[in-house]
Amino acid sequence: xxxxxxxxxxxxPADWIDYNGHMNDADYVRAFSIGVDEFMxxxxxxxxxxGKHQYTIYTLENHVCYLDEMHHEEAYEVKMYILDYDxxxxxxxxxxxxxxxKRAATSEQMLMGMDQSEGRPAPxxxxxxxxxxxxxxxxxxxxxxxxxxxxxxxxRKK
Length: 158
Known about the structure:
Elements: E1 5-11, H1 25-42, H2 47-53, E2 55-66, E3 75-85, E4 89-97, E5 103-115, E6 120-121, H3 126-138
């Protein structure tokens, strides 16, 4: 597998801890969302570029697998692979790691490039497309992670 790109390195804040004494499920998604924002900046869609191009990225679908608990002040990293992409979509796979390499959660996402002036999907601006291609060259796994493509359901014995 090629190496995932580290997008965020931080610590779990107190307001992300719920009544169970660990990170709330919504805040795992928040960490992944912050990671997608950083990905956007990495491929040339920071705040200035979004305004200039009237272009952004929306999350169309998100599948989270919760693998381990995260606690207050625990150091974490959000890393990302690109599983696939085309002219206006990115099939992304993000991982949240805690201390000592603990793999705490994954998030498989379908991202869509959006022309904000039209309110419709549109191809990535040329410069963004070029940066996305470079990102994918270095951060696409040779095989999909175990959690990718999972379907939710109750398995029943026949």
